[in-house]
Amino acid sequence: MATLEIRDLHVTVEADNATKEILKGVDLTVKQGETHAIMGPNGSGKSTLAYSLAGHPKYTITGGTVTLDGEDVIEMSVDERARAGLFLAMQYPVEVPGVSVSNFLRTSATAIRGEAPKLRTWVKEVKEAMERLNMDPAFAERNVNEGFSGGEKKRHEILQLELLKPKVAILDETDSGLDVDALRVVSEGVNRVRESGEVGTLLITHYTRILRYIKPDHVHVFANGRIVESGGPELADKLENEGYEAYTKGGASE
Ligand SMILES: Nc1ncnc2c1ncn2[C@@H]1O[C@H](COP(=O)(O)OP(=O)(O)OP(=O)(O)O)[C@@H](O)[C@H]1O
Ligand SMILES: [Mg+2]
Question: I need a labelling partner for 42 at 20 to 30 A (CA). Which of 5, 107, 119, 244 fits?
């Protein structure tokens, strides 16, 4: 069983010639097969956590440990993290001009599986995955995210998730900006991957809407750079009703 273990993680970022600590001691364990939802106010550091786990160079880890199956993740390059089984669906997916979706997916799959997927089965695999996500097959020949609508970008993230089958998937606001039908389609995609029982899911979200489709085992409140409370699915409803004031009172941002 793969386990992602985050212990007392501290992360800083350089901004305006100053070093700012964003993550202030994050503790979290995500096991394969589990789904964790992280909810918290804007600017509390949720995306910073996602980027730090993925190895974004902007973020400096100044303390703590991150391991996947006991292997030190912090020591790994971005590539190595992906090969080790970490996957990040970004809050704001980036455009990759000049690279088609189809080439991008095959290159990623080759890197992660350690060998190029056989072309015939691969084409079928991609086609079927796109159909399940109600994506027009024409997207395969378009450049990654270029001119994609917000919802199309999110579907493309889930397409990658389904094809790459990571051990731990971090989904940063994959639900934001989706219409009701897209939310269902995207959630079904996430659930198909979860049903394998082989992926641990870290779902960062602002809304309990998506949690109606993707049932979390654990819900965490993220405030001021750390997890300040953990509970079951009922915690999400409490947050929706009561907001985060109870967690952010008393100069939270400092
Ligand atoms: N590259 C960066 N340069 C400067 N400041 C940054 C950078 N990345 C993050 N920050 C700051 O760190 C804080 C946390 O940002 P982050 O994006 O992690 O928040 P979040 O919890 O994901 O918020 P949201 O719910 O709005 O997505 C913010 O104050 C943000 O301005
Ligand atoms: Mg964010």
Answer: 5
User: What domains, with CATH codes, occur in the chain?
Assistant: 3-92+149-247 (3.40.50.300)
Q: What is the pLDDT of residue 86?
A: 96
Report how far residue 244's alpha carbon sits from residue 131's, in angstroms, rounded to the nearest whole number: 39
Determine which residue's CA is closest to atom 5 belonging to ligand 1. 15
Of ligand 1's atoms, which has the minimum distance to the CA of residue 59?
1
**Whose CA is closest to 23, among 250, 244, 246, 222?**
222
In tens, the pLDDT along 177-202 reads: 899 999 999 999 999 999 989 999 99
pLDDT at 63: 98
222: Cβ–Cβ under 8 A, 6 or more apart, which residues? 38, 39, 40, 44, 45, 46, 49, 228
Whether residue 252 is predicted with pLDDT greater than 70 in this model: the reply is no
Q: Which two tokens stand for residue 173?
A: 């606001």
Report the separation in Å between the CA atom of 11 and the middle of ligand 1, taken as the mean of its atom positions.
12
Burial class (CB in 10 A: 0-12, 13-18, 19+), 233: middle
Longest dimension (CA), the chain: 60
Beta strand 86-89 with 59-68 is unpaired
Instruction: Give mean pLDDT, residues 42-61.
Output: 96
Ligand 1 atom at shortest distance from the alpha carbon of 49: 18
